[in-house]
Each structure stands twice: as C-alpha cells, then as structure tokens.
Amino acid sequence: MYADVHLHLYEAPDPKKLVAEAREGGITLLITNGENVDTSRRCVELTDLPGVYAAVGIHPSSSNKPYDRSVLENLLDNDRVVAVGEIGLDAKYDIDMDLQRRVFEDMVSLASEHDLPVIVHSGRSYREVADTLFRYDVLADLHWYSGSLDVALELAQSGHFFSLGPASLKGGKYRALIDELPLFQLLTETDYPVRIGGKDNHPLRVREVVEHIARVKNLPLEETRSAIYNNALKFFGVGP
Ligand SMILES: [Zn+2]
Known about the structure:
alpha/beta; binds zinc ion; eight-stranded parallel sheet; TIM Barrel; 8 strands
C-alpha cells in the first residue's frame, strides 16, 4: 500500500473516480489539503470516500483574504481531519510577507492548540519557514521542499518530515535530499492536480516516487514502500 499525503482532491472532475483508480493501484491513504475556508470544507466532505482524510487551512496564496478561524476550528473537530494544511509562506506571491507571516503563524498555532501536525509550503522562504516551525511545539511535513540541504537537515534533526512528489524524480538537489534524509522521515505526495514535468498528475505517481527513493537509497523496494507507508500512518495517526 501507498500514501499520497498531499493532493487537492476537490480539483478533480470526478473525485470518486480518481480515488477508485488510486485504490486500484494500491494508493489507499489520501490526504486532501484545503487552501481556504471553502476548499477546506470541501476536503472534509470528501472524507466520505474510502481512505480519504483531510487537512484544513489557509494557503499563503489566500492569505490576503479574510477568513473565519472559528469555521476552521469546527472543521478540526472532525475525526477525519488529521492535519492543518496547506499552509506556509511563498515569496513569489504578490502578497505582503508580513501578512503571509501572520496567517502562517495563526495556522501553526491552530495546529498546536489542536495537537495536530501541519503540511507546509515553503516556496522561496524555507529558512524563515524553518525558523517559524522551531518556535512552536508542532510537527511538520515539508511538502515539495526545494530549499537547501542544510536547512532540510536542521528540520530533520528537529523531527520534521518531508513529502516527496514527482518533481523529486528530476534528480539534482532532490537526489541529495533523498540520499541524506532518513527513510523514517520521508512521505510521498503528488500535489495533484499540479502538472509536473509537462505531465498530467495522478495519485498513482507516488509509486514512481517510492521506486526512485528505493533506487537512490539503494534499499529493497518492498522495505522502502512499507517504511514510507507506515511513516504516513504514524505521522497522521490513522489506522491502516
Ligand atoms: Zn498543494
């Protein structure tokens, strides 16, 4: 079995069909991530589908729109909500960084208050994202991390996790990350529906990611697959 711990299922034309195709290929755990209050609510509705759990939160690209924190708090009371995400910072957005910081910290404290992990976007701001996480009592999954190896190792040292997706198949700096990060802190994701490397995306692509990790780390495929799947169960506190 495999896990896709970061996708946006509400973007699928037919989420039920996508989940069925994923399950057919062994992807039995899917964490759909919200970007604002509306999509977070949508994610919670989609947890009716088998193996689907939700993360709710305010994405940095939505940080310039007001949101009602109490709605998110209510969503967090649902047993199928297992994280606060997708949250973070991204210097590429034309949104004031102070505003992004305020929303990010609000989301991190929300997770900490509810004793839940966070799923974090760290585009062009990984140093600051790391420093923020270090100030809170919270466990993070760094999604599609593309920062420096040094900061990744600091984060790993503090117990944080990394979800790798199809972009990591490209090699380069991702290869060094896979090589250096401990297997017990790795997770897999696709960020569906984001197109990666000019290809359509699909939760099934986590299989290629697992194969790639096994190759780079020179470990048996089955051992790699089961370790990463179990990391996901443990990280999100869900049953098999
Ligand atoms: Zn995403």
